Amino acid sequence: MNHIALKMLMGDKGKYMGIVMGLTFASLIMTQQPAIFIGLMSRSYSFITDVGLSDIWVMDPKVQFVDDIKPLQDTELYRVRGISGVEWAMPMYKGLLKARLFDGRFQTCNVVGLDDATLIGGPPVMLEGKIDDLRRSDGVIVDIDGARDKLGKPSSAPGGKPIPLKVGDSLELNDRRAIVVGIAKITRTFQSQPVIYTTYSRATSYAPRERKLLSFVLVKAKKGQDLNELTRRISETTGLAAYTQAEFMTLTYEYFMDNTGIPINFGISVLLGFIVGAAIAGQTFYSFTLENLRQFGVLKAMGTGNWTLLRMILLQAVLVGSIGYGLGVGLTAIFGFAMRNTILAFKFPWQLLMFSGAGVSLICVFAALISIFKVIRLEPAIVFKG
pTM here? Predict the structure, then answer.
C-alpha cells in the first residue's frame, strides 16, 4: 500500500512539485528570518561577551542596556575594590566619539578605554600587533571590520572599495592624534560602528571633559565566591547596580525585545511564511486528493480500511514535508554561509531546526487533515458513478 501511495503522489509531477515548493518556501522563511533575528539580537550584547575575565559588571542603577552609558565618579572604583569577596576591580570607559579620518571625513566610533596597568577587557582576538602595544604613545587598536570599511581611506578609483586602515596609520579623536598599533577581530555590534580600543587614561583624554567619565567597573570574584551573593553585597554597599555577565546580557537583550519593533517585524515575516506555506500545501494537497478520489474509492471497495488509507495519506504528507523541510533548511544554510563575511547578522543554532521543523509539521498535518476528512467520508459507490 505504501508503494501505491507514493505512485499516486508522484503521478502528477506538477502538483507534487507544487506541494514540495510550497513547503520549501515555508521552511526557508521560518528558518532564515529567525536566524537573522537571532543574529541581530545577539549583536545587542556582543560587546559583553567579548570582554573576558570579569565575572561582574558594576554600573549606574539607571543603565538599561550596554550602550546606555551613565558615567560614574572615579571614586566608585575604590569603593568596589574594598568590598569583601572582590579579587580585583578594573575601570572601563565606553563612549561614542567622532574620529577625523585621513581625508577629513568624520566617523562616529565606539571608543573603549582599558585599565592602563592590566589592559583587562581588551579585544578577544588580535590579528596584527599585540594588546601591550596600547602602552605606546597615542596607541589605539581598531577592529578589522571598521578598518576595512568605515575607517578606510578613500579608493583612488571612483566607486572603488576603501583602502583598509593598517598598523602605523593615524586618525584624530577629539583633535588628538591616535596611532593604529594593532588590528583586532571582534563580534560585530548592534549599531555596527567601528570599535577603537585604547588605555583608560587616553580614552578619558579623548572624551569631552566631564566630571564623571567612568562607564563600568569590571569585577573578578575571589575563588569559591558566590556571584549572586557578591552582586547583592556590591549593590547594598555602593548603591550601584551589579550584574553577572549573564544577567547583563539578559538585561540588554530584554531591553531590545521590549523597546524596539524588531521582534514584531520578524514575527510577522515568519507568520506570513507559515500561512503562505500552509495555503499552498493545503490547497495543492486537497486538489491532489480530489483528483485521486476514484482511486481511494476503488481501494475502499476492495476492502481497504480507513486506517490504511489514513496511513497512506500520512506517508504522502511526511514525504513531501521531509523533502520541503530539507530543501528549505539547506537553502538557509547556504544563504548563511554566503553572508558570513558581510554586515548581515545571521546565527543558526540547532534549536532553530526544531522550531522550523515543528512549523513544517503543522503545515503537513493541516494539509493531511483536510484530505483525510474527504477520504474517510468517501463512499465506495463513487467508483460506479458515471
Answer: 0.83
Spatial separation of the C-alpha atoms in residues 295 and 321, rounded to whole Å? 23
Dihedral sign from CA coordinates of 184, 187, 193, 197: negative
CB of 292 closer than 8 Å to CB of 351: no
Q: Nearest 5°: phi and psi at 108?
A: -75, 130
Q: Which residues of the chain have pLDDT under 50?
A: none
* Residue 224 phi, psi dihedral angles, 5° rounding: 85, -5
Alpha-carbon distance of 53 to 216, in angstroms, equals 14
Q: Which three cell numbers stand for residue 254?
A: 530584554
Q: How many CB atoms lie within 10 A of CB 48?
A: 21
Q: What value does the mean pLDDT of the chain take?
A: 87
pLDDT tens profile 47-85? 999 997 899 999 999 999 999 999 999 999 999 999 999
Domain ranges of the chain: 2-43+261-384, 73-239
Fill in the DSSP letter of residue 201. H
174: left (phi over 0), alpha (psi -120 to 50) or beta: left
Ramachandran quadrant class, 139 (left: phi over 0; alpha: psi -120 to 50; beta: rest) = beta
Q: Tens of pLDDT along 131-145?
A: 999 999 999 999 999
Q: What is the largest CA-CA distance in the chain?
A: 96
> Which strand (E) or helix (H) includes residue 250?
helix 245-259
pLDDT at position 9 is: 65
